Amino acid sequence: MIICHANVSWTSLLVLTLVILFAMSSEAGEKYVSVDFEVFGNVQGVCFRMYTEAEAKKLGVTGWVKNTRQGTVVGQVQGYPEKVKEMKYWLSNVGSPSSRIHRAHFTNEKPVSKLEIRGFGTRY
């Protein structure tokens, strides 16, 4: 047992403890990241969505992917920051074997306290 001889009141200790616990819960409350993406290049008709879904499931991120009428692929990814970062790299540089990625654009990146999407799927 540690005995503190300093002139500290129990009220001060309680307030300090509550402040620390609040700070810890706030940080834990934003442990996920969400980001929207659009991939440009030869990304339709080359199984890009199927490979994106497989990569997302492998990394354990959630979200969706779909083709656009403009010939791009759009979607959203949510998950732990390091896993979302890996998925962003994959979308920018790897893609499906037959795809040719010119660039990937990421928007609306923000911390989220919980995953808003279950699983990862293709939308039509």
Automatic annotation (TrEMBL):
PROSITE patterns: ACYLPHOSPHATASE_1, ACYLPHOSPHATASE_2, ACYLPHOSPHATASE_3. One of its GO terms (molecular function) is acylphosphatase activity. Belongs to the acylphosphatase family. Residues 1-28 form the signal peptide. It comes from Cyprinus carpio carpio. It is an enzyme of class 3 (hydrolase). Its EC number is 3.6.1.7. InterPro entries: Acylphosphatase, Acylphosphatase-like_dom, Acylphosphatase-like_dom_sf, Acylphosphatase_CS. This is Acylphosphatase. It catalyses: an acyl phosphate + H2O = a carboxylate + phosphate + H(+). Keywords: Hydrolase, Signal.
